[in-house]
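Design review, sub-item: ligand-bound model
Attendees: FS, YL, KQ
YL presented the inputs for the GN1 complex:
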Amino acid sequence: MKSDLLDSIMFTVGLLAVLRSKSHNGATIGVMVTASHNPEADNGVKLVEPLGEMLDQAWEEYAITLANCETHQQLQAALDDIIKKCKINMDAPANIVVARDTRPSGEALVASLKDGVKALNGKITDYGLQTTPQLHYVTRCINTANTPNAYGEPTTDGYHKKLADAFKKIVSGKPRLSPLLVDCANGIGAVALKELCQHLGEDLAVTSSNTDINGKGVLNFECGADYVKIGQKAPRGTSLSPNQRACSLDGDADRIMVIVSNLAGVFRLLDGDKIATLAAGFIMSKIKEANVTHADKSPLRVGLVQTAYANGSSTDYVKNKLQVPTVFTPTGVKHLHHEAAHFDVGVYFEANGHGTVLFSDAAVTAFKNAEGKNEAEKKAIETLRALSDLINQTVGDALSDMLMVEAILVCTQQSFKQWDSAYTDLPSRQEKVKVASRAAFVPIKADTELVEPKGLQEKINAQVAKFKKGRCFVRPSGTEDVVRVYAEAETKEETETLTYAVCGIVFDSFGGVGERPSKFKKVDAAGNII
Ligand SMILES: CC(=O)N[C@H]1[C@@H](OP(=O)(O)O)O[C@H](CO)[C@@H](O)[C@@H]1O
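KQ shared the predicted structure:
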């Protein structure tokens, strides 16, 4: 094995991708390289299944096993184990496509990946610089080519054309909005946006900021969706005039797309929850207008998938006003994606802005077969067909989500203010607590409760009971060595008190390590905040 850790991990990812492809009889597997040596950046390499979805859970575990091998012998034994368990025919062909975002480490990591693929005689095609969702799109296109479910042309141009054509169909004949300002986080989204705009022409006026893809240390620096969401402030270099529509992409333009606005001088952020409710409401209304059902006249099932981090007000709004069934899953988009696939129209977004809308084959067939009795029905059917092309069916996609939001706002001629006023978020706060072992925290019920460590959940419940509209949960992070504490309550002050009381309990009685942050509250044995 190579000595450098990241290189050797990429090498084993190459081996794994080959095995995954062989296990699908040579179907193409995608590998997206976004890894970086910068610990602040979004480290990761993402494997893409043949239909463009995220890697299967069992295979993720195989990936971890391979990455943890320290010797050649261990690696060989782990590979043999996977081959045996999955009954992989090693004579089958293997096809891999790879792409990378603009992070400087990308090129070297792709080279190591190629070595791994070639070591097992796989074939690899390099798509160069792409956004993560573009690579997901390409993978699905390749594997569905010449089938009735062909997803599109497997090229960057094909991607842009598909999105732009669908967008044009939806907004056709409607007055356009003022220009949209897009913060590209100095990442690959800047390149993709430019290309997309060439296809959109006059149908969407865009100005962009933070487009320096070659600058050192500028990726996501004081810009990008994470920065905007966490800091609740505008990205650098992006001056928002009153009522200016703007959005922030993240570094690889997949997992976050957050809309920012300056509503009458007040900074407002419309996050994944707001995008999800906008999309669900719009699609529901179009299905009704189109009068479209399954062939047996049964209604299309629309559903929304959220995580515990969704603001409680958004959940109330969806249940009581939109009357759309809501399902909760543990944190992590792959859980949401799988759950959304159970509906005919499954809308899923994490509050942080990663998400999409999935249309079942049955829904797409219903749209295709619907004829419409009058002009209004026909137009709504056209819109639904175009939406299923516009919205990336493989994974959350910042550019596709951006166009979806724009299309809905154009169609409904809705202002940001109207959209924002559908419901008011409850004040919320999220904090991290460093603990000796996050594995000691075992969540259940879609992350909303803990069964371990014993006694903690009762203490959390006792604090929550003190606050009107109080809600709080603690869960181990899957990506950082911390546990996260999330709380909501009726006022900002109450939310902070609840958050820091629970942080204090976790830190003081359940294994806190390092310096104790002074904002954490002290709570006595009877649950009183001291
Ligand atoms: C509270 C939060 O935002 N958690 C994020 C974060 O997961 P954690 O397991 O909380 O570390 O990273 C995930 C992967 O990017 C993302 O899907 C998720 O939403």
